[in-house]
Amino acid sequence: MTPEQINAEKLHAHGGRARSFAWLLRRLLVIAAWFAVLLASAWCAAALYFDLPFPHLRVPAAIVYVLFIAGVIFFARGDGTRLAICLGGFIVVLLWWLSLKPSNNRDWQPDVAQTAWAEVNGDVITVHNYRDCRYQTESEYKCEWVTKTVRLSELRGIDVAFIHWGLPRIAHLIVSFRFADDDYIAISVEMRKQVGQSYSAIRGFFRQFTLIYIFADERDLIRLRSNFRHGEEVDLYRTTATAEYSRQLLLQYLVRANQLHERPEWYNAVTSNCSTNVFSEMRAIGPLPAGISRFDPRVLLSGEADEMLFEHGLLAGNLPFAQLREQSRINPTARAAGHSADFSRLIRAGRAGFDTAVPEPPMQ
Q1: What is the full DSSP assignment across 15-74?
Q2: 261-278 in b/e burial notation, b at 16+ Cβ within 10 A?
Q3: Less CB within 10 Å around the terminal CB: N or C of the chain?
Q4: Cβ neighbours, 10 Å, residue 253
């Protein structure tokens, strides 16, 4: 075989390998595209099932959409055509879904019947629709909506409660602002439920609930979870936030509450929930403290956010984290405290970090 023939053979073999690789790459891209389209189609069917404004049409609409996608897959010619039609269907449903508007005018459950709003006059903060629920059981309670007045100059720091209910990587966060004389304003970011609705992680991905910032007494927000809800455990920590940082963050919370009072927003289990909104308010006043990344998975998987705060020096208490977390559990003490006027003081007594001055948290 001549040198020219050898070179031609090598070029042919190389071209064959290149064509094989290109074919494989195209097939992988098509498979990935179909995977994305099928996921999008499943989401479309679920969105129609959960969010269509006409309840009697929800199941038929979801079924019709699934049948439409199945028809495209089996009867349309060519992957490109099938993918394009499915993508078009997704875009139509997405545009409809994004057009759905939240409202504050619904038949709300009694514990979310009002939305908090605030006035700031110099040093004086007045919180309206401050919640004070008295519980007999988790479902038997009477809520009063009162006016709470505090002085910004008396704000001392921030405590944070992590509520766990059996999913180790998921927790609910309650931020509590500490004022002089053991006075606290606790804030819980929650889904606002209508009468007849209940908590649903799946429905939380759709436009089923609006977002609410509840401002309340700790004997309401924390005691509900430590004393009355079954299977919920409350870990309470003191943060290293200074008075100045605490004032900035509280004012940001008040701005946000006023916005939601005037213009409701949708709750979303991923993008706008109890933990992502906490870190969003922190970002709104500047860089996240101590180099915390907004992309840290523990911002969303908030069951481990306490460890993230500890790693960045944002939790008080001179203990290794395992010991700090172990002694932070307040349920037995909270049950013993009951509805005592000293509830907030009693659940903190003797716990690491709550009797020490704390430094300014380092910033990015």
Answers
A1: HHHHHHHHHHHHHHHHHHHHHHHHHHHHHHHHHHHHH-S-HHHHHHHHHHHHHHHHHHHH
A2: beebebbbbeebbbbbbb
A3: N
A4: 25
> Angle at the Cα of 325 (from 323 to 327), degrees rounded to 5?
70
Whether residue 327 contacts residue 319, with contact meaning beta carbons closer than 8 Å, is answered with yes
The candidate with the shortest Cα–Cα distance to 253, out of 192, 163, 185, is 185
Amino acid at 76: A
Task: Please determine, for residue 290, whether its predicted confidence score (pLDDT) is greater than 70.
Answer: no
Counting Cβ atoms within 10 Å, is residue 330 exposed (0-12), middle (13-18) or buried (19+)?
A: buried
The CA distance from 46 to 39, in Å, is 11
Q: Which residue has the tokens 């059981």?
A: 137
Give the whole-number percent of the chain exceeding pLDDT 90: 68
The C-alpha atoms of residue 325 and residue 152 are separated, in whole angstroms, by 30
- Domain range summary for the chain, segments of one domain joined by +: 3-98, 110-346
- The label of the residue with tokens 């390998």 reads 17
pLDDT at 275: 87
pLDDT for the residue numbered 50: 96
Can you tell me the distance from the alpha carbon of 37 to that of 200, in angstroms, rounded to the nearest whole number? 25
Surface-to-core class of residue 199, CB atoms within 10 Å of its CB (0-12 exposed, 13-18 middle, 19+ buried): exposed
Q: What is the mean pLDDT of residues 92-102?
A: 96
Give yes or no for residue 250 having a pLDDT over 50: yes
Tokens of 272: 């706008």
Cα–Cα nearest to 98, from 54, 59, 44, 147:
44
> Which has the higher per-residue pLDDT, 355 or 56?
56
Closest by CA to 232, choosing from 189, 171, 300, 304, is 171
Residue 12's CB is within 10 A of a number of other CB atoms, namely 10
pLDDT exceeds cutoff 80 at 222: yes
Residue with tokens 């759905």: 100
CA gyration radius, the chain = 27
User: Average pLDDT of 160-185?
Assistant: 91
